Amino acid sequence: MATRTTSSRSGSSTKRSTASSGSSSRKKSAKPSAAAPEHQLAWPLRAIRGAWMGIGRVVGGAFRQIGSKVQPDYAVRRDGTGLFLVVVALIVASVEWWGLRDVGAYGTWVHNIVAGSIGYMGVLLPLVLLLGAIRLFRHPEQDAVNNRVGIGLTVGIAGGAGMAHAVAGIPTVNDAVEHLWAGGGILGFLLTSPLAGLISRWGALVVMAMLVFLSLMITTATPLKRIPERVRTGYRWLLGQDTAANESASSPADGEHDQSYLYDSEGRKKKRGSKPAKARTSFFGRKGQAEPPVYDVEDAGDGAYDTAVISEGDRARRLDPTQPIDPARDSFRGTADEPSEPAVPPGVKRPTAAEKAMARVKENVGLGSSSSAASASTAAEPDTEALDATAVNRALAEHGPNETQVLPKAGAPLPPIPQRTEQLELAGDVAYTLPQSDFLPAGPPAKERSEANDAVVAALTSTMQQFKVDAEVTGFSRGPTVTRYEIELAPGTKVEKVTALSKNISYAVASSDVRILSPIPGKSAIGIEIPNADKEVVALGDVLRSNAARKTDHPMVMGVGKDVEGGFVVANLAKMPHMLVAGATGAGKSSFVNSMITSILMRATPDEVRMVMVDPKRVELTAYEGVPHLITPIITNPKKAAEALQWVVKEMDTRYDDLANFGFKHIDDFNKAVRAGKVTPPAGSQRVLKAYPYLLVIVDELADLMMVAPRDVEDSIVRITQLARAAGIHLVLATQRPSVDVVTGLIKANVPSRMAFATSSVTDSRVVLDQPGAEKLLGQGDALFLPMGASKPMRVQGAWVTESEIHQVVEHVKGQLQAVYREDVTVEAPKKQIDEDIGDDLEVLLQATELVVTTQFGSTSMLQRKLRVGFAKAGRLMDLLESRGVVGPSEGSKARDVLVKPDDLPGVLAAMKGETPPANEGEVSAQESALVENANANHSGEGQEYASAQEYSHDVLADEENARPEAVDYYDGEDSGSEDAWNLTGR
Ligand SMILES: Nc1ncnc2c1ncn2[C@@H]1O[C@H](COP(=O)(O)OP(=O)(O)OP(=O)(O)O)[C@@H](O)[C@H]1O
């Protein structure tokens, strides 16, 4: 609505104030320079100008005292122009109102000009001019509003002149001049005479009347839809009722916010991309209600991550010191029965310097006057200020918190958590219902502003003043744990000046956890995140009932929490596709995992999502034991967990076989086709095709697994993470030890989404996020969320679900269906055929092989050093390597030749483990034959060793052969020998 003022901190000079207000002030700062040629004027002119300005200030001052007093900044005052309008109004009034028309040439000239130009509208002209003068005296900084009002009034004068002319019978210039003047003057003639020719005089009258109507709409910033409401407001105003309260109550209720008349900080009209909230009083409404801005980190179309983040737009809380601090103060989001914001009584304590800085901010976005101020001023200036009050409400509705922050009143029924319309039938014809929404009650209402915030704004402002940094706090957005204060720099002020103050800011706000973002992504502003002295808990129920969650009925959507701007964050686990959750003990990982599992239980049937839970700590996930979504009992034994991961790999392979055989790229497509009956098993197959559920594998402490079987666990994880996305298998790995030996490079490379809770060191933060930051988090659910595809982590406060809530949900779920566990998930995999001569040394032999091949250096002493083994063991390992064709024969003290290239290493390692090498058949054969050749060369004549080398070849190929029937099951139409992929999920 209004441009921001260039006013600076109190008492500052014009120069300073001009320089201090950021981008838009640049525009303003040009104004004084327009007066630059002043010194070039001749002194009489300068004297006249000075006198004029002096009178203007006096008159303007008088106008500013009327009703609610206003004090626009000196730099933006336009008293000279205002005075000019007053003088012209007086001249016109003296002739047209007070009968000076016949008094000599003065009257004649004025009447000729006025009536000759606009006819009868000359009578209204003094009023219009006075109105313009009032605006310029009182609100010179609101350029956009002033322009709009100016345009509206001009259109009105034109329409009125046209109407008068049509009524007067469209006199032409050929008629007597008095006739012309008695109509709409020259303007009226120009507007109506062509129209009258086209659509008759009465047609022209109608068009002109429409022009007058349009002018009213423009002047009062009223879109067509809001006319009844405006009429009501006007009526109430006439009856002396509180228009601001009514307006604010009715404004959201009608749900449609004006899209055309909001202005941004530069005074431009703001284009509203999406419709604002339909009904702020009830965020639980129907689909199709206004949605918050949605930020897709990456287009979901290609299957990449897609998460909805509310409040990505400019939702910074604009500072307004005149507003009383009251968490329930938002009349703009309130209902008619909510108490409206009390008006500030006249004589309220004037804001301090810091508060003045705050006060300007609201004008940047159309909060030119707080609703209280607006309501106070409405009485004084109904025509102009009432508009502002309306705009305030609209702007508040726009810039204020999302309606999802409005919490239901106590006792009000909670809205449902999204459910699919079709309830999927489970085996045994059980109709499964998802848990009721009220199992997860609403949390306490979110605050948008508290005294703590105001204190911090004052501290920041004074710190910058003390250090003479020309910057100001322009707003803040309060999240549950931290508030982000926005700082804008004056032109020519270095960003480093603020960032260098970080320690002083910490000192001023008495918090060591200050995080500076320069800039805030997508904004020309510096963000300073400071913990709230009064933190809030984010209830999972609220997150799941938010618009972002309700937008989708995807079963893998989980409630993540709230971002720094107070917007709800949800994420689709299916599109993450795998996530690492890390943080020091007590930071909130388990709570996050609980929220995730509860979200799934709330939204997904066991038909849609199955889970494997690994909980080596034995206490974190026990609450979920027995839920039908589980495929196997919660695994607490790390060794069994490693086996379960291998089972998941097998399941993944099976799903891939199905995808390949039926010609689909993603399990979703396959499922869709199955549900639509478009996929039929090959002729002769007994198999009944069913959709695959998503499989969510949750490991609550990765470190425990990595201690037991690092290689196997890493192998399985890497294999799952590399491929499982298309198979609908998703991994969530949580750890409190995000060190490189737990979160290895390979795991990291394949787990793209990260959730970092407070870590104990910056090194840990780097391991999780590849950047520092997590070490500064506050714990208790404060986290940095880096979804796949995002370049910068987003700070969120994790959703919180209590044990009793979990219990209720679990009981509901278990009450409907018993868990049917698969037996084979944790069945120990058949022992691989490991050569006898390797015995128990397989692990260390694999390490030795890796070392020798990657360094291409076959030295026994190197093995001794690096593997910390004795000479005898190192020698034995070298012999084993030689027997496997990895290195050549001993050449005395020289290092041995290394016969295997690093590229072939995976195949060689797999062969040593007795596994199928992870390469295609051709490559495997090549590797194997290379090994055989090497071994042959090394041990020609040593029958035993040769046979062993041949065994490799034999084993690998045999393994491949064994694997093949499963893969070709649907090609040859034989069921036997292959396990039905569906069976693997136990259904
Ligand atoms: N999202 C949250 N909102 C509010 N409080 C939380 C949140 N998350 C965690 N907390 C608080 O922090 C405490 C520790 O959380 P949690 O048990 O999840 O930590 P953790 O990282 O899993 O620790 P550990 O690794 O020792 O299990 C909780 O008991 C709770 O009081």
TrEMBL record:
Keyword Ribonucleoprotein: no
One Pfam family recorded for the sequence: FtsK_SpoIIIE
One GO CC annotation: plasma membrane
Keyword presence, Membrane: yes
Transmembrane segments: 82-100, 112-137, 149-168, 180-198, 205-224
Cited InterPro entries: AAA+_ATPase, FtsK/SpoIIIE/SftA, FtsK_4TM, FtsK_alpha, FtsK_dom, Ftsk_gamma, P-loop_NTPase, WH-like_DNA-bd_sf
Record PROSITE patterns: FTSK
BP term (GO), one: chromosome segregation
UniProt-listed SUPFAM superfamilies: P-loop containing nucleoside triphosphate hydrolases (SSF52540), Winged helix' DNA-binding domain (SSF46785)
Subcellular compartments: Cell membrane
Coiled coil: none
Region Disordered, annotated ranges: 1-37, 245-352, 365-384, 934-987
GO-annotated molecular function: ATP binding; DNA binding
Record field: compositional bias (Acidic residues): 969-978
Matching CDD domains: TrwB_TraG_TraD_VirD4 (cd01127)
Basic residues bias: start-end ranges: 268-278
Mode of membrane association: Multi-pass membrane protein
Swiss-Prot/TrEMBL keywords: ATP-binding, Cell cycle, Cell division, Cell membrane, Chromosome partition, DNA-binding, Membrane, Nucleotide-binding, Transmembrane, Transmembrane helix
Quaternary structure annotation from Swiss-Prot or TrEMBL: Homohexamer. Forms a ring that surrounds DNA.
Protein family per UniProt: Belongs to the FtsK/SpoIIIE/SftA family.
PANTHER family: DNA TRANSLOCASE FTSK, SPORULATION PROTEIN RELATED
Functional description taken from the UniProt entry: Essential cell division protein that coordinates cell division and chromosome segregation. The N-terminus is involved in assembly of the cell-division machinery. The C-terminus functions as a DNA motor that moves dsDNA in an ATP-dependent manner towards the dif recombination site, which is located within the replication terminus region. Required for activation of the Xer recombinase, allowing activation of chromosome unlinking by recombination.
Protein name, UniProt field: S-DNA-T family DNA segregation ATPase FtsK/SpoIIIE
Biological source species: Zhihengliuella flava
